[in-house]
TrEMBL record, chains A, B:
It comes from Rhinolophus ferrumequinum (Greater horseshoe bat). It catalyses: D-ribitol 5-phosphate + CTP + H(+) = CDP-L-ribitol + diphosphate; D-ribulose 5-phosphate + CTP + H(+) = CDP-D-ribulose + diphosphate; D-ribose 5-phosphate + CTP + H(+) = CDP-D-ribose + diphosphate. Its EC number is 2.7.7.40. Keywords: Cytoplasm, Nucleotidyltransferase, Transferase. Its main location: cytoplasm. PANTHER family: D-RIBITOL-5-PHOSPHATE CYTIDYLYLTRANSFERASE. Cytidylyltransferase required for protein O-linked mannosylation. Catalyzes the formation of CDP-ribitol nucleotide sugar from D-ribitol 5-phosphate. CDP-ribitol is a substrate of FKTN during the biosynthesis of the phosphorylated O-mannosyl trisaccharide (N-acetylgalactosamine-beta-3-N-acetylglucosamine-beta-4-(phosphate-6-)mannose), a carbohydrate structure present in alpha-dystroglycan (DAG1), which is required for binding laminin G-like domain-containing extracellular proteins with high affinity. One of its GO terms (molecular function) is D-ribitol-5-phosphate cytidylyltransferase activity. InterPro entries: IspD/TarI, ISPD_C, ISPD_synthase_CS, Nucleotide-diphossugar_trans. This is D-ribitol-5-phosphate cytidylyltransferase.
């Protein structure tokens, strides 16, 4: 198979991708639009932006041995989703990730496997602040032989906040350029209290007057680098809040930007569950149903399409692909839809379907390929309804245990 | 079918139950142990305890029209899980739920459908504090004709925290009896900051010195009722924190009790996803595999059991049930296991399996009953492995769209 156009390279496992799924043409035009908009923004406000991701944590709150940034979601490590979210933003020139020495090889493997770009690795420190400082030092070097160049603005983000959107990144960068520092905030979910030494309530804070400080944050590079250079060992050991350093050492009052709920940080095991569900939902919006014949497409395909289009944003029906020369299959693969459903009508002609499965499996696309047989022509309407339920189930659950099963509606 | 013993009544939909799943004998002995322990506790510290659940919220943060306490998780409203968690605690005598007038019928329907007990309904006020006050008033009446009696200690909990455990309830009740008030706390996940009027950073709080105030909380009834009677309209309109009222109006410094991560509040849509995954995990721990013959049980059943027991805490194999007189089926149903898998070996004898499905469907137990056929005797080991994968998938995903499907390993 021909590789895609440059800049559209596809990761080995398309299933868990976060990027909006679309056909090649659409993709190109979206990319162009996004680039045009981004270039306008660049000229206006963001001459040179880099990002630093501290990823040296051990994830002790998760209660699992794997550090949370490396926990798999649909078989792909959490940090890879976060990198993907940053990579989509073309005006972020460099992404510096700080990982511990023992995870360096793991991280290199992730970058290679998921074809991440513009990533530099540095060794993490023993605390969050020390890891960020490592990343900043790498950006500050600005040596002729260094791949990195000193940015005007640096974004600091968490490896475990995979759902960050371009919109909020642009807001914090723009605000940082104006104010020197900026950070995303969210309303408090719980009241914050201050316990006394004996574990009793001393004071409860007025919830409406306070906010949770979230990520991303952005800084004029010179401001935050100066702050880190000046700050005490105590700060580096026990502090966690970059905005606080900018205030304390550079007297910069950060601009606070209201963020959306999806900025949340994967902290506990339940957050992994939530992240998985969100990712599943995002990549389950497109279905391509492949029918045996034009007649089946007319008789069954379009009625199934009707039933399914309330639940999915894109439902497409094609036919004739199974009497294949390789070219028809090639065409299907080029659709770039990650949810294929073969629908056989009336007969268990599993052999042809099996051939399609085999070809899809051999391609490097790892496309999902559940199979549904609408068998009961006597009660077509009921069968169709059950078929639609099965299709929706397969697409949404996305469980490889059922791949290739002959499901009968 | 005979109803279960008193106190062990089963809700219409066993799937989403949180109670530990166990056989009838185990259940009885657990119940006895739990009762004995609870009675000892009662004498020591909890003479009369009631709970108040404000459930009048509109759930605007969820971004869905249904108030979050009524959002379905595996087809069952969230609040029903929370009620179940409180009901399990036998020393909580009354549970007063405050719901808005328009949701009163919905709530009555939920209580009936899931056979909730010890529940009284009161009309919610327009704010959280007013709803709690309604609940307290109902408990304070203590009229001869009232079903409720004034408790010594009252627990206040949220309808949207379904995973509360008896352990933390007992801790707050015990602490409230000693200190007058007590509440669960958790470490802060994010730094809390105080924005200035122009939306810039004024001050960031030291994260280690502060805590998030969570639920449950407990109070000597007289303390919290006094506080609500004295508090201002402003408090009732804009306040949210009961511990604060006890401090302000009764000078009671609440004892703060460290809670576990599962006390978290379902606030955003992602929390519903997380809750669903947690509930699925809890109710997917037991499998009962039903085989056609004793030979199949020996040949296939016990090998599947081996493969599955790493993933599930309870795997059981039975056979012979499909040559049924009704008595065999009765026996299977009495196992009280919610995950049945029929395993046919070598042949597609779907008819017998279908009979079992029908009987299970007709019983009021709504048991799940995926079906697996181990068909390929040539490559038994491979088939078994694939069969185990399919079984694990079905049990864990728990999607009714696949019920009754003939799945071939």
């Amino acid at each position: 198979m021909e590789p895609g156009p440059p800049g559209c390279s596809r990761p080995a496992e398309p299933g868990p991708r976060l990027r909006r799924l679309c056909g090649a043409d659409q993709e190109a035009s979206v990319a162009l639009l996004s680039r045009a908009r981004a270039e306008a923004e660049l000229q206006r406000c963001v001459p040179a932006v880099a990002a630093v991701l501290p990823a040296g944590g051990s994830g002790e709150r998760m209660g699992v041995p794997t550090p949370k940034q490396f926990c798999p979601i649909l078989d792909r490590p959490l940090i890879s989703y976060t990198l993907q979210a940053l990579e989509r933003v073309c005006w972020i020139k460099d992404i510096v990730v700080a990982v511990t020495r023992e995870n360096m090889e793991t991280m290199k493997g992730i970058i290679q496997r998921y074809q991440h770009q513009r990533i530099s690795l540095v060794e993490a420190g023993v605390t969050r602040h020390r890891s960020i400082f490592s990343g900043l030092k790498a950006l500050a070097q600005d040596q002729p032989d260094s791949q990195l160049s000193k940015p005007e603005v640096v974004i600091i983000h968490d490896a475990v906040r995979p759902f960050v959107e371009e919109d909020v990144l642009l807001k914090v960068v723009t605000a940082a350029k104006e104010h020197g520092a900026a950070g995303a905030i969210r309303p408090l979910v719980s009241t914050v209290i201050c316990p006394s030494a004996d574990g009793c309530l001393d004071q409860s804070l007025e919830r409406a007057r306070h906010r949770a400080s979230e990520m991303p944050q952005a800084f004029l590079f010179d401001v935050i680098y100066e702050a880190y250079q000046q700050c005490s060992d105590y700060d580096l050991e026990f502090g966690t809040e970059c905005l606080h350093l900018a205030l304390k050492y550079c007297h910069i009052k950060a601009k606070l930007v209201e963020g959306s709920p999806d900025l949340w940080k994967v902290t506990y095991k339940r957050d992994l569950y939530a992240a998985e569900s969100i990712i599943k939902e995002r990549i389950s919006q497109q279905i391509c149903m492949v029918m045996d014949t034009k007649e089946d497409e007319e008789l069954v395909g379009h009625r199934l399409e009707e039933m399914l289009k309330n639940e999915f944003s894109h439902v497409k029906v094609t036919s004739g692909a199974l009497g294949h020369t390789g070219r028809d299959l090639q065409q299907i693969i080029l659709e770039q839809c990650y949810n294929f459903v073969c629908v056989n009508v009336g007969a268990y002609e599993f052999e042809e379907t099996q051939k399609l499965l085999d070809v899809l499996k051999e391609s490097d696309l790892s496309i999902l390929y559940p199979v549904v047989v609408i068998s009961d022509e006597q009660k077509l309407q009921d069968s169709l309804r059950q078929g639609a339920t099965i299709i929706a189930t397969l697409i949404k659950e996305r469980n490889s245990g059922l791949v290739g099963q002959l499901l009968v509606a």
